[in-house]
Amino acid sequence: MSTTKHARIGEEVWKSRVDKVNAELVTLTYGSIVQQLCKDLEGDYTEVNKQLDKMGYNIGLRLIEDFLAKTNMGRCNGFRDTAESIAKIGFKIFLNITPTVTNWSADNKSFSLVFEENPLADFVELPDDGRAQNELWYSNILCGVLRGALEMVQMQVEAHFASDVLRGNDSTEMRVELIRIIDDELPPGDE
Amino acid sequence: MASSLLPPRIACVAIIGKKNSPLFLSTFTKSRDTLFFHFLIHTTLDIFTLRLPSKTNGDSDFGLLYAVDEELACYGWLTNTGIKFVVAVENPTSSGGEDLKPVFRALQTAYIRLVCNPFFENDELGAIKSKRFQKEVGDIVEGWRPGSRGE
């Protein structure tokens, strides 16, 4: 599928088949989740990242069903096609943003998503405690979502943020790497 | 008088909390020291209290609070949540209050962005330390052109 086609599907689904919700509601809800995690885990930002990722993973496992139902997408034609679908359809219909797919590795197994805007991080200024700027990945839930969603369609990926404007970087970039395609295994113990 | 030829300039921006605790104060002039402005802003609080009962038109603008002399005047803005914004202007003009409306609106927007930050502790105990907010206020002050009514 060509990239313009992805964009068109994303636009169409966004317009006709998605219930909209107030942006501040999402931003503030996510904000209080992250803030509460930071408090509960007493500023252990590595653990906060882990928890956010785990939450995202559980969202992704479910969200993929919704995604497939809304878009009527068939199988992707290779990992590049998957990347385009994530950026132009997935992010479009759920967050109304379209990150740029870029920085492909030579073996076509990993790419970067560069976010021009990030509705989760509106208003946010990381705590000035000298550590959050280096340790916390504020939007880490998104990594988990991708990991969970792709796992349900037989792709094991590893996703992490490489930079974030909240930390003072120039751009917000997520790195996604395909680990392996999960074969449809026989149920264990079935000999 | 020579000073009246100088264009109006914002000398100080202050934010005061619901319980009259100073949340933020930033000065943009070298002609007077910061302590002077702390006193100045403090005295405006009485005027807010005094005028509040007679204020019926429902908007936040308190206009000119008072003029110290020909060189300095204070303008105020009070939100329904009790947050007070005070701007002190050097070399004020007679229409200064009207001119400052966009400034107050921009300040309020910046303040909203500040309190919407999930990591912001809205406890009125500490002063506002946010660097982003500080910068935004600086930009608003720098960008102010008296006489323009634009946003």
TrEMBL record, chain A:
Keywords: Endoplasmic reticulum, ER-Golgi transport, Golgi apparatus, Transport. Signal peptide: none annotated. GO terms for biological process: Golgi vesicle transport; macroautophagy. Gene3D superfamilies: Trafficking protein particle complex subunit 3. It comes from the Eukaryota. GO terms for cellular component: endoplasmic reticulum; Golgi apparatus; TRAPP complex. It is found in: Endoplasmic reticulum; Golgi apparatus, cis-Golgi network. This is Trafficking protein particle complex subunit BET3. Belongs to the TRAPP small subunits family. BET3 subfamily. InterPro entries: Bet3, NO_sig/Golgi_transp_ligand-bd, TRAPP_component.
UniProtKB/TrEMBL annotation, chain B:
One of its GO terms (cellular component) is cytoplasm. InterPro entries: Longin-like_dom_sf, Sedlin, TRAPPC2L. Gene3D superfamilies: 3.30.450.70. One of its GO terms (biological process) is endoplasmic reticulum to Golgi vesicle-mediated transport. Pfam families: Sedlin_N (PF04628). Belongs to the TRAPP small subunits family. Sedlin subfamily. This is Trafficking protein particle complex subunit 2-like protein. The lineage of its organism: Eukaryota, Fungi, Dikarya, Ascomycota, Pezizomycotina.
